[in-house]
Design a protein that fits this description.
Shape: globular
Largest sheet: 3 strands, mixed
Helix content: 40-55%
Number of helices: 4
Number of strands: 3
Distance between the termini: 38 Å
Strand order of the largest sheet: 1-2-3
CATH class: Alpha Beta
CATH topology: GMP Synthetase, Chain A, domain 3
């Protein structure tokens, strides 16, 4: 049976062809991720989050979604700027 991390990676890579998914932490019962895709270009953060959480709610159980802390969404350009 796949882990929650594996499920999330599969969901995002299926939804976003160029997705880069990184689990960046686990604590206090929550997992935290960074999702990078060019599909976010030109979209406000609220629209990105709505899209991401809709994918999660449609494909994971309530308890699995409840176990997620945050998903940081970035474009490749934003990720590059963040790393500098």
């Amino acid at each position: 049976m796949p882990t929650l991390k594996e499920k999330i990676e599969t969901l995002f890579k299926t939804r976003y062809a160029d997705a880069q998914v990184q689990e960046v932490g686990v604590g206090l019962g929550s997992s935290f991720y960074i999702l990078v895709t060019k599909d976010f270009e030109g979209k406000e953060e609220t629209a990105r989050q709505d899209q991401v959480w809709a994918v999660l709610r449609e494909n994971l159980s309530f308890d699995e979604v409840k176990g997620l802390g945050f998903i940081l969404t970035m474009t490749p350009e934003e990720e590059k700027a963040y790393a500098e």
